[in-house]
Amino acid sequence: MAKVKKVDVTLCVGCGLCEQSCPEVFKMEDGVAKIKVATCSSHNVKEVAEQCPVQAIVTED
Ligand code: F3S
Prior knowledge:
The protein is 20% helix and 28% strand. It is α+β, with helices and mostly antiparallel strands.
């Protein structure tokens, strides 16, 4: 299962899509996304990362 390695906060524009898609993993804080846990039980985090408009979410297998 893919894991979220990090959110590059220098790229994140705070659109909030990742938190909307997977609140189990992502949490908005100070206008950027933070990681709560690395994996999600109901989503492939790679697909969530692909939806980020600025590719700020780094994942690993
Ligand atoms: Fe930031 Fe991308 Fe999420 S811009 S809030 S990491 S979808």
